[in-house]
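I would like you to help me understand the sequence and structure tokens below and explain how sequence relates to structure.
___
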Amino acid sequence: MLHNNSVVGQLEYELMLLSRYHLRPHHSKEIVLDRSAVVMLSRLENVPPMTLKELSAALRLDASTVHRQVAALLRHEYVCYAPGDGGEVARRVTPTAAGRAALLDTRAIFEEGIGRVVADWPAAQQGQLRDLLRAFNEDIERLEGNAWPRP
């Protein structure tokens, strides 16, 4: 068996499964944003407009990947270039109303799916999972020195 049976090994395995299941609406015929669009729009929604270099650092992605993802969002008019400070050379991107609406629509579809999974869980257990996931994510952010803005 290649699987490590320690608690950390079991966590790794469960997180692998979670990443496999998450952001994949199984029974929805509605169009949803792809994972990269969800992540980028989510990063941009609660902060002032960001340069591509800032996005690259925040998302821990190379510049070419960020350029490609931003270009796709620009084509769909989900982001736009925001006016920068006087004399600033780097262009900043920010979500458009269409981008925010598409993100909200996509989240609603995913929330519906998550709601079906935890529908029979007591509210306390749902809250416990939320709290543990947030603590886990915040510890990752702390270790990386890269806090994710939350509403």
In short: The longest strand covers residues 79-82. The helical segments are 7-21, 35-44, 52-59, 63-75, 97-118, 123-144. The chain has one domain: 33-144. The chain has a mean pLDDT of 89.
